[in-house]
Design goal:
Order of helices and strands: HEEEEEEEEEE
Distance between the termini: 112 Å
Number of helices: 1
Strand content: over 45%
């Protein structure tokens, strides 16, 4: 019993003498990162594109504002078809212009969706199945559009009007 009591006292003495030494190190300094600057998208100004293939002419001119909203003019003079001349309103979504094209053809106002893909500084018009909904002609599924390089509009200097 004396041995157990002696061992217990010695163990307590060892534990109490091994006090943890208080550290007096300086607190860690945390420097906040500077706030990230908001990405400012500058308006890209007037842009003009043209295609003159197969005795046909397509002219597109538009402006993109800081919210990536697009407005402009689009004209089709397709050989053997009626001339279409109207306005576009839409948005740039990444490298794709998606817009509504409102034009006069055969004395009637019509609205149809147009999609152009930017590639190498030019625009390629997209084609695909369409449906009519709410007096508008829209693409059935924009993910299935075809962009044929033969339908490329080349960037040109804008004409002063």
């Amino acid at each position: 019993m004396k041995k157990v009591l002696t061992l217990t006292v010695m163990a307590l003495a060892v534990f109490t003498s091994c006090k943890k030494e208080a550290t007096t190190t300086e607190p860690i300094q945390i420097t906040p990162s500077p706030p990230k600057e908001a990405e400012i998208v500058e308006p890209s100004g007037d842009q003009c594109y043209e295609s003159t293939a197969n005795n046909s002419r397509i002219e597109l001119s538009f402006n993109v504002n800081s919210h990536q909203e697009v407005n402009g003019k689009l004209k089709y003079e397709i050989s053997g078809k009626d001339k279409n001349d109207g306005i576009i309103n839409g948005n740039m979504v990444g490298d794709t212009l998606i817009a509504e094209y409102v034009f006069m053809s055969e004395g009637a106002s019509t609205m149809r969706q147009v999609v152009f893909l930017q590639r190498d500084g030019n625009l390629i018009e997209g084609y695909g199945d369409v449906v009519q909904a709410n007096d508008k002609v829209v693409f059935k599924d924009r993910k299935k559009l075809k962009f044929n390089p033969q339908n490329t509009l080349v960037k040109v200097d804008c004409k002063v009007e």
